[in-house]
Design a protein that fits this description.
By secondary structure, this protein is mainly α. The protein contains 9 helices and 2 strands. Strands 1-2 form a two-stranded parallel sheet. The N and C termini lie far apart (75 Å).
């Protein structure tokens, strides 16, 4: 019975591995879980984006890399912006948005005002972001495309604000 049960079991995926890590005291996983929770997001239970509910993130590896490179403040800012801008939406292109936001916070464009970021992000929904990334090959290309779209959106908001004055 032991052999049959082990052969028939469901293989673990990366999210299963991540969910187990805090239980054994993995400090990186605990930090990621804390930052995700503080941003009012949650870790997805499924790797399939079609099964995600609003506010679920599955890009834990990207969060770990960003945390190691840029620290809590940058990761927290990116996650919080995502939670505010895309409230109520499944984050089907969340990894690309997260990567773009990390780039923005880690190396802000000239004249960047953080207060413009959430309104700039609200000009998009996940479907429009899907159109932006659809012909991009690889995570870096998708992140770069989303980064460019967000920076352009910030520029439009700044320009519109200046015209109203």
């Amino acid at each position: 019975m032991f052999i049959v049960a082990n052969r028939a079991r469901k293989p673990m995926n990366r999210l299963d591995d991540f969910r187990a890590a805090p239980a054994v005291g993995d400090e990186d996983a605990l930090s990621i879980l804390r930052l995700v929770t503080e941003a009012k997001l949650k870790i997805a239970r499924n790797t399939s984006s079609t099964a995600w509910t609003p506010g679920e993130v599955a890009f834990t590896s990207s969060i770990a890399i960003a945390l190691n490179r840029h620290g809590d403040a940058v990761v927290s800012a990116a996650l919080t912006c995502m939670a505010e801008a895309f409230e109520g939406q499944p984050l089907t292109h969340g990894a690309s948005v997260f990567g773009a936001l990390i780039r923005i916070f880690a190396n802000p464009p000239e004249g960047f005002d953080p207060d413009t970021l959430v309104p700039a992000l609200r000009r998009f929904n996940m479907a429009s972001l899907g159109e932006i990334v659809q012909n991009q090959k690889g995570g870096n290309a998708r992140t770069t495309a989303v980064y460019a779209a967000i920076v352009d959106s910030i520029g439009v908001l700044i320009e519109n604000s200046a015209q109203r004055r």
